[in-house]
TrEMBL record:
It comes from Symbiodinium natans. The keyword Transmembrane applies. The lineage of its organism: Eukaryota, Sar, Alveolata, Dinophyceae, Suessiales. Keywords: ANK repeat, Membrane, Repeat, Transmembrane, Transmembrane helix. The chain crosses the membrane at residues 554-572. ANK repeats lie at residues 420-452, 549-581. This is Mask-1 protein. Coiled coil: none annotated. Pfam families: Ank_2. InterPro entries: Ankyrin_rpt (IPR002110), Ankyrin_rpt-contain_sf (IPR036770). SMART domains: ANK (SM00248).
């Protein structure tokens, strides 16, 4: 007999989706229109030398209302460099102009982010021809949304601006391309460096990214622009909570909450109409993490009441339902007939409860004989789940530490391995969940260098380093840890930050350690495979691998495009003269990568260390280099 949820899906399909238009017209600026011979005339956007507000460009006739049949739209997500203006000195926008021009002329192309390649292989991306085959239009908040009469904190919002803000999910859906504009630039008013890492911390940027991740019309591929010649394809399954991001004005939290709730609701309905109950159930429970720190009432589900439950699901005793209304409602909304059931994705009710992170619900399921050592029994790539992932790993990765305590109290195995030999401690380290790391270590989680390794031969500490998870690293560094090649791992995967690099240096990692892994080790084989792949399908990862042998962390950071980290290593007195096995120095590689001028000058000896530290920290240096590069203001100090 079909469950109430399956009946609801059939009814949704019969009714069909609601077609809606944005509440405010989608104003865009034409970037380029291509003639029959692919001629590239100068366009309105490319001729800009400053960013004018919406009202000015509208009056000048530069803005047009975009419709899908007109061409292809680009949604530009960026940080504001000032409170009243997004780009007062035209720093960010000039980089975007040059990057797009380079793509059109073939000077550069869209590469693949290392993490994306490791997790997803070689996904179909965007060739230069794909990008320029249609007329392109840019959606950019400052000139696409009304600005006149708005205050910086949006306490006074013109009606048109509020409608435009509410329409952001629809704008994202109508844009085929999503561009993250995150070059390393100094914010004049705040006097600090903003880059991709700080972009990921901004609440509004997280909201826009989440809109792309949950967009039914497109995949979750995004294009990251870090310089005019460094453009990378990235994908993410993170669904970072906007509520955990940084708000310039606390009053924005409520505005973001409304957008996020609508995003999740529409994606849930989309999954139901498609009949994708696994994705529906996963998101229905994942919303508790997505809504974290936002004033939002979660969706319990779309089914009304629980009246049909006893009749349609006799396997759950009526007495049990009356005693556990929360459990009964959960099973009813999820479309499960009993506690031990599994869906086609390999999830049981308690697996979804672990995703949800409700300790009371988890305890209720355990009281009714659910297994604390249950696992997701199938691999779900689109959800980032490996086969045999344990409940402990799910809770540790999602930050559900109260649920972690419940499972540990029920003697869940702290060393349960999934299909890729990853354990709960790996999940906690990769998610930078320091509290979970402490809890699992206290319960005797295996830290052995011989046995506690994933299929990539990564220990929990190596996992934390690879992902650049500073808080997890610091917890594990309270006991001695092997530091060899840890700097390399975080650089090669493009996850290093100034703070993570400094954490390893303060633990006495060798700043000039050269990459030379043991023959036939996992790292040796991965590097060899990538060097071979580079011959016919070069990517960022293969380029890093080709230049890695004999390279120092400084050299790898340059090849990986981590220019802020490279500058930090120079300040920390990395050796500039070492050559890799291709006889290249850091300066040679920097010239090939066309790094920013301040970094090239420092490598050539034309720049002073104090000037370099000032460039990357946004402040004068006296006696020691205090690098305040992190968006949340953490300080890293190294004596010079």
């Amino acid at each position: 007999m079909p469950s109430a949820l399956e009946n609801f899906v059939q009814e949704l399909r019969r009714v069909g989706p609601d077609e809606a238009d944005p509440l405010f017209p989608m104003y865009t600026a034409l970037w380029m229109r291509f003639g029959p011979f692919c001629e590239v005339p100068l366009s309105s956007f490319m001729s800009m030398t400053c960013i004018e507000p919406h009202e000015t460009l509208l009056a000048e006739g530069i803005l047009v209302t975009f419709e899908p049949e007109m061409g292809r739209a680009i949604f530009v997500s960026h940080q504001w460099l000032g409170q009243d203006h997004p780009d007062p000195e035209f720093k960010q926008t000039r980089v975007l102009q040059e990057a797009l021009q380079n793509l059109v002329t073939g000077v550069s192309s869209v590469s693949i982010d290392v993490t994306t390649e490791v997790l997803f292989g070689h996904p179909h991306g965007y060739s230069n021809a794909d990008i320029i085959e249609k007329p392109l239009f840019l959606w950019y908040d400052f000139f696409s949304c009304p600005q006149h009469g708005a205050t910086p904190d949006l306490s006074r919002t013109p009606a048109g601006l509020q409608l435009a803000i509410d329409s952001i999910p629809m704008y994202v859906q109508r844009c085929e391309l999503f561009v993250i504009l995150s070059p390393s630039v100094r914010a004049g008013e705040e006097d600090r460096i903003l880059n991709y890492k700080s972009w990921r911390q901004r609440a509004w940027c997280r909201t826009e990214s989440l809109a792309r991740e949950l967009c039914p019309a497109h995949d979750n591929l995004m294009i990251r622009v870090e310089s005019s010649r460094h453009v990378a394809l990235v994908t993410t399954l993170e669904k970072n909570s906007p509520g955990g991001g940084v708000f310039s004005f606390e009053s924005d939290r409520e505005k973001v909450a409304g957008i996020v709730r609508e995003l999740v609701k529409q994606k849930l309905l989309y999954c139901l109409r498609k009949g994708d109950l696994v994705s529906y159930r996963f998101l229905l429970n994942e919303q508790f993490r997505i809504f974290r720190n936002l004033p939002i009432q979660v969706f319990d589900g779309f089914l009304i009441g629980c009246d049909e439950f006893d009749a349609s699901h006799p396997s759950l005793l009526k007495a049990e339902v009356s005693k556990e209304p929360k459990l009964a409602s959960f099973l009813y909304q999820m479309g499960f007939s009993h506690i031990a059931e599994r869906d086609v994705g390999g999830f049981s009710p308690i697996c979804y409860a672990a995703v949800r992170g409700d300790p009371l619900l988890l305890e209720s399921l355990l009281r009714h004989r659910a297994d604390p050592n249950d696992r997701v029994c199938k691999t779900c790539p689109k959800l980032g789940i490996s086969r045999n992932t344990s409940l402990l790993a799910v809770c540790a990765f999602n930050g559900h530490n109260e649920c972690l305590r419940v499972l540990i109290a029920r003697r869940a195995g702290v060393d349960a391995k999934d299909a890729i030999k990853s354990r709960p401690l790996h999940a906690a380290c990769g998610a930078n969940n320091a509290e979970a790391v402490r809890m699992l270590c206290a319960e005797g989680a295996d830290l052995s260098l011989k046995t506690a390794r994933s299929c990539l031969s990564l220990t929990p500490f190596a996992t934390a380093c690879t992902m650049g998870c500073v808080q997890s690293m610091k917890v594990l560094l309270e006991a001695p840890q092997p530091l060899n090649l840890m700097l390399y791992l975080m650089m090669a995967t493009q996850n290093a930050s100034v703070e993570s690099a400094a954490t390893l240096l303060q633990a006495r990692a060798d700043i000039n350690e050269r990459f030379c892994p043991k023959a036939r080790s996992t790292l040796w084989m991965v590097n060899a495979a990538m060097r071979l792949k580079h011959r016919w399908r070069p990517t960022t990862f293969t380029w890093i691998s080709v230049n890695s042998w004999g390279a120092t962390p400084l050299m790898v950071s340059i090849v990986a495009g981590l220019f802020d980290v490279a500058a930090f290593l120079i300040v920390a007195r990395a050796d500039l003269e070492i050559r890799n096995t291709r006889n290249k120095t850091a300066l040679t590689l920097a010239e090939e990568m066309q790094v920013p001028d301040f970094l090239r000058m420092a490598l050539s000896g034309a720049g002073r260390t104090a000037d370099l530290a000032h460039e990357i920290s946004g402040g004068p240096v006296t006696g020691s280099a205090t690098l305040n590069m992190l968006p949340f203001g953490s300080l890293v100090t190294l004596e010079l």
